[in-house]
């Protein structure tokens, strides 16, 4: 963290991963001469000077992200001037690799343009004409709601442009300034010289440029271009050479009398911070992760077939009664339904066995239907034209019953040489034939009543 800094100085990061070597990345709006600097570190009440330090300049520029709020226009000249101002601001952001968002101020409507480009800000730009906003601060508050909090050390800048010398909602200035600082945004106010504009810039630790002075634009553009200049990195060896695994707060001070620079900062050494920096290092994290994964796989492979002998003997002793009990259940099920769960999956029930061994009792029909009646005594016919007709609540059945008490596949009727056999497909609520529960497959006769859930089906054959 930065304790204090001259205007134009901004602390980016403090890197203590290679402590006692400390790397401090900062930004300066002016060129720095590496000579004439004095760096000291203070621990508690004691201070020591560093033996040597060096500056390294980064090659890449810093992205400057702009959020621009501009008023509407009253005539063609104002329109051209405002578009030209927005074009120049967006172009500066583009040159640094940043993004821009544009808002047109209005008390009633909302006009905002995400990631706007300077090429679109020309004479053909669809600039909406709105009345002069009476409450500019409320406009800026609405604009601020759509801007995410700046979680990085990059420059995210609000640019508020206003033509009004006085703001009727000036009593909301402290709250707006607080919200700007909470979102970690820098503020630039381009407005006539007034008490309101000065207050807003002061409360938000921002800058105010007089819109009526031509020198203000040169200063504004010069300041924004300087923000996009490359950062510097200060590298030095800490004179204290403390342990990274113990908690200490170290304060540093960088001074240059010749260049008039004073910069104070502070960093922390602790066990948890050192552990976090160690784990976040790719050269340490990935090898350790691969080793742990390999160790887990080896443990799983070793324990794959491991069983304790005592448990194995117990399972062998207890397996015989369980198997015999299961065998008796399957025999009872086979006697009642003529099929087991294994054979039911292959759809070869008792009807196929009966057809192969003996002649089925009952009457043969060349034509058969099921009559379904509702509460109004209306009946609906369903022709049994397939060799097997399934009944249930699933849409894939031949006869679908809209009843919550009916299973997905509840029952089925098979046609064997003109004789129709009714089966219960192991449903929970069962199937009733002429008022009696169906315990085994039976051949249907004319006028038989079939009860499935709350639905009554009447069998008709001729």
UniProtKB/TrEMBL annotation:
Keywords: Membrane, Transmembrane, Transmembrane helix. It comes from the Bacteria. PROSITE patterns: FHA_DOMAIN (PS50006). The chain crosses the membrane at residues 283-303. InterPro entries: FHA_dom, SMAD_FHA_dom_sf. SUPFAM superfamilies: SMAD/FHA domain (SSF49879). Residues 389-438 form the FHA domain. This is FHA domain protein. It comes from Leptospira terpstrae serovar Hualin str. LT 11-33 = ATCC 700639.
């Amino acid at each position: 963290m930065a304790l204090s800094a001259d205007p134009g100085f901004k602390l980016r990061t403090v890197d203590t991963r290679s402590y006692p070597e400390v790397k401090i990345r900062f930004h300066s709006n002016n060129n720095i001469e590496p000579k004439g600097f004095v760096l000291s570190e203070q621990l508690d009440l004691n201070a020591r000077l560093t033996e040597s330090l060096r500056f390294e300049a980064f090659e890449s520029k810093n992205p400057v992200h702009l959020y621009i709020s501009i008023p509407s226009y009253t005539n063609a000249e104002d329109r051209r001037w405002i578009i030209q101002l927005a074009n120049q601001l967006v172009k500066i952001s583009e040159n640094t690799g940043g993004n821009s968002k544009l808002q047109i101020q209005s008390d009633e409507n909302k006009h905002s343009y995400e990631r706007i480009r300077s090429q679109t800000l020309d004479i053909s730009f669809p600039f909406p004409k709105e009345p002069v906003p009476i409450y500019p601060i409320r406009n800026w508050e609405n604009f601020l709601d759509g801007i995410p909090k700046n979680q990085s050390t990059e420059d995210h800048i609000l640019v508020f442009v206003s033509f009004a010398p006085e703001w009727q909602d000036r009593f909301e200035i402290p709250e707006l300034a607080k919200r700007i600082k909470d979102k970690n945004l820098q503020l630039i106010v381009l407005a006539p010289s007034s008490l309101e504009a000065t207050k807003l810039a002061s409360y938000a630790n921002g800058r105010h440029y007089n819109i009526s002075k031509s020198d203000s634009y040169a200063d504004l553009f010069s300041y924004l271009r300087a923000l996009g200049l490359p950062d510097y990195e200060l590298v030095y060896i800490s004179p204290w050479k403390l342990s990274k695994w113990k908690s200490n707060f170290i304060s540093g001070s960088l001074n240059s009398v010749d260049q008039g620079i004073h910069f104070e900062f502070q960093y922390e050494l602790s066990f948890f911070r050192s552990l976090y920096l160690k784990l976040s290092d790719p050269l340490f994290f990935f090898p350790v992760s691969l080793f742990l994964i390999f160790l887990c796989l080896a443990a799983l492979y070793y324990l794959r077939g491991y069983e304790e002998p005592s448990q194995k003997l117990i399972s062998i002793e207890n397996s015989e009664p369980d198997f015999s009990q299961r065998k008796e259940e399957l025999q009872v099920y086979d006697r009642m339904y003529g099929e087991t769960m294994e054979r039911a999956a292959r759809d070869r029930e008792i009807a196929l066995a009966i057809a192969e061994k003996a002649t089925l009792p009952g009457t043969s029909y060349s034509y058969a239907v099921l009559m379904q009646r509702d509460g109004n005594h209306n009946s609906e016919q369903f022709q049994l034209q397939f060799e097997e007709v399934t009944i249930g609540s699933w849409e894939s059945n031949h006869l679908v019953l809209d009843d919550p008490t009916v299973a997905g596949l509840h029952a089925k009727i098979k046609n064997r040489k003109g004789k129709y056999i009714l089966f219960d497909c192991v449903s929970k609520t069962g199937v009733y034939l002429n008022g009696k529960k169906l315990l085994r497959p039976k051949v249907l006769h004319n006028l038989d009543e079939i009860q499935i859930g709350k639905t009554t089906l009447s069998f008709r054959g001729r």
